[in-house]
Structures are given as C-alpha cells and as structure tokens.
Design brief:
five-stranded parallel beta sheet, 5 strands, 6 helices, binds coenzyme A, globular, alpha/beta, 163 residues
Length: 163
C-alpha cells in the first residue's frame, strides 16, 4: 500500500483538515501529517505549536496517524525523505482548483514519481479555513463546530481571551 503525506500550514488544524485525514486513511495505511515551516505566509502559531496542536486535536478526535512532522524546504524533498509516493490535498471548492493544479504540476515536474491525490472535503466544511476560524475566535465568536476543544483553547490563549 503506498504511503502518503498530507501537507499544509495547519495554522491551526480544523475539522476540515481532520475530515481529509480520515478520508485519506481509508486509502493509505501509512499517513503522516506534514506541517510546513515556511508555507509562504505569516502564521499565528510557530511550527512547533502547530505540530503540538495538531497532535492534540488528532488525539481528542481519536484519529491515529503515523506521525505529525514539521518540514522546511520543498515538499517533494520531504516526501522523498519519508518514502512517500503520494501527496494528499483536500479540495473545498472550485476556487481551490487552480492553486492545487499549479502546485501538483510543479511537484510532478520536480518529482515525477510522486503522485498528488485530491480528496473532496465534506460539504459542511467546504467554507472553512484556518483564517476564518482565527478571525471568528478573535472577535469573540463560537468556533466549537469548526475545531476541536484543544484548538479553541490554544486560540483563546494566543488572543488572550477569557474562556
Ligand atoms: N478544511 C479546511 N480548511 C482547509 C482545508 C480543509 N480540508 N484544506 C485547506 N484548507 C485551508 C487552510 O486552512 C488554509 O487556510 P488559510 O489560508 O486561511 O490559512 C488554506 O486552505 C490553504 O492552506 P493549506 O492547505 O495549508 O495550504 P497552504 O497554501 O497553506 O500550504 C503547502 C501549502 C504547505 C503544501 C505548500 O505551500 C508547500 O508545499 N510548501 C512547501 C514548499 C514547496 O514545496 N513549494 C513548492 C510547491 S509547488
């Protein structure tokens, strides 16, 4: 069975990401979650914090993955290092397609033996993003249906909000 990596910035991980993890695990029996240290955008949480939050969120939801790792540099180099033949990405809406298409073709060019696999996010999470979750929490909204408790708690601490 091919091994896969599910990469992303996970700043922070949401139920949308966890939905993709669960779907990917039906296809791959060895999945690692790869947290990009430099995803090309400013992050709220450090790579170590994002890793810890992802691990705690997976534990809270009783979802087991082989490992949660952080990586810097090219994704395809990380995939090679961990012997991953496949890169899993979630698709939420049409708007994701162009970006994912560009990334998949670039990665294929860089590493022809690494295949990108796209899984559709559950409809209920198709609008969700880490930015939306951060914004709603920072403005005092309820994010209980978007993220596990541990993520909500860590966001509250980061924004210095009373729970
Ligand atoms: N549910 C909810 N939200 C989701 C989601 C899902 N299933 N899938 C994606 N998202 C959201 C994320 O929360 C994120 O939201 P944000 O922009 O508000 O933070 C957004 O969609 C996109 O995030 P993500 O999937 O994490 O992608 P990314 O663009 O942040 O990172 C990497 C993509 C890390 C895989 C890519 O930058 C990479 O490979 N970097 C390594 C360097 C490299 O190899 N570059 C060349 C690549 S061609």
């Amino acid at each position: 069975m091919p091994k896969a990596i599910y990469p992303g910035s996970f700043d922070p991980i949401t139920y949308g990401h966890l939905d993709i993890v669960e779907r990917a695990e039906k296809i791959f029996d060895d999945l690692i979650v790869g947290i990009a240290e430099n995803p090309g955008k400013e992050t709220l949480f450090s790579p170590e914090e994002r890793k810890e939050i992802a691990e705690l969120a997976l534990e809270e939801e009783s979802i087991e993955v082989s490992e949660v790792i952080t990586f810097s540099g090219l994704l395809v180099d990380c995939a090679k290092k961990y012997n991953r033949e496949s890169i899993v990405r979630g698709l939420r809406a049409n708007s994701d397609f162009e970006y994912e298409f560009q990334m998949a073709l670039t990665n294929r060019d860089l590493a022809p033996n690494t295949e990108s696999v796209f899984l559709m996010t559950a409809g209920e999470y198709s609008f969700l993003s880490s930015s939306i979750v951060k914004e709603v929490k920072n403005l005092g909204g309820d994010i209980g249906s978007f993220v596990p408790n541990v993520v909500e708690k860590r966001l509250a601490e980061k924004f210095d909000l009373q729970e």
